[in-house]
Amino acid sequence: MPFASARNRILVVCAALVAALLAVALFAPLPISIVVPGLTADVLGDDQGKPVITVTGKETRDTSGQLRMTTIAATNPDAVVRFTDVLKAWFATDQAVMPRDAVYPTGGTVKEIEQHNQAEMTESQQDATAAALRQLRLSPSDVKVTLHLADVGGPSAGLMFSLGIVDKIEGNGRGGDLTGGRRIAGTGTITAGGKVGPVGGVPLKEQAARRDGATVFLVPKAECADARAELPKGLRLVPVTTLDGAIDALVALDSGGKVPSC
């Protein structure tokens, strides 16, 4: 009996320790961010009362349809995320769990991160403008493009900015719109030479696009697998690798030609 009592006491102590460790694991903050579908914005339209795209030195066109850039939204870098939050997000279709360093790779304060994201957006806009003017064979010394989109940071709107500039100035080259009157969304970085690069968070951006009425989604070809994995019903994927290829795909979509698919 004394041996059994001692063993029982040991089991009770062990159980208490395990319970304490589980409690710590459940409620301790984790280096994790919860990510959800973010806002989308039509680069052919206005933002806070100002045109997203303003062109001087070249006549612009009235456009129909929409070209919507897409975003994801993450918990603030200083937010406390616990195991219970991660568990909930794990089973949600409109949430994702990402290492905080993957969402905020620069570290620092919230203000420093915002400044970094804004710097990336500014550089992306410059590259997008250069790529579009190169596509149109226009000189930046003769044509000035100003891009305005508040409260959005990072480089992932580059492709949509370039397409918007092309649509505003030239359209599809046949007197019509690149959009063909459709609500088209997409994502992708872009270089000044017109090369489209991957961005991450594609499944959540697809959800944001479909939520806001898009029926076509332009995706960097390298991210086709992620894009197909959780594709919302009613959204058509169009993979792209270059600005020129994206334009060709949109023209083909409107004319009934062959459109690439993931």
UniProtKB/TrEMBL annotation:
Q: Which parts of the sequence belong to the Lon proteolytic domain?
A: 153-246
Q: Which InterPro entries match?
A: Lon_proteolytic, Ribosomal_Su5_D2-typ_SF, Ribsml_uS5_D2-typ_fold_subgr
- SUPFAM superfamilies in UniProt: Ribosomal protein S5 domain 2-like (SSF54211)
A GO MF term: ATP-dependent peptidase activity
One protein family per Pfam: Lon_C
Instruction: Provide the GO biological process annotations.
Output: proteolysis
Q: Which domain of life is it from?
A: Bacteria
User: What protein name is recorded for this chain?
Assistant: PDZ domain-containing protein
Give the source species.
Actinacidiphila glaucinigra
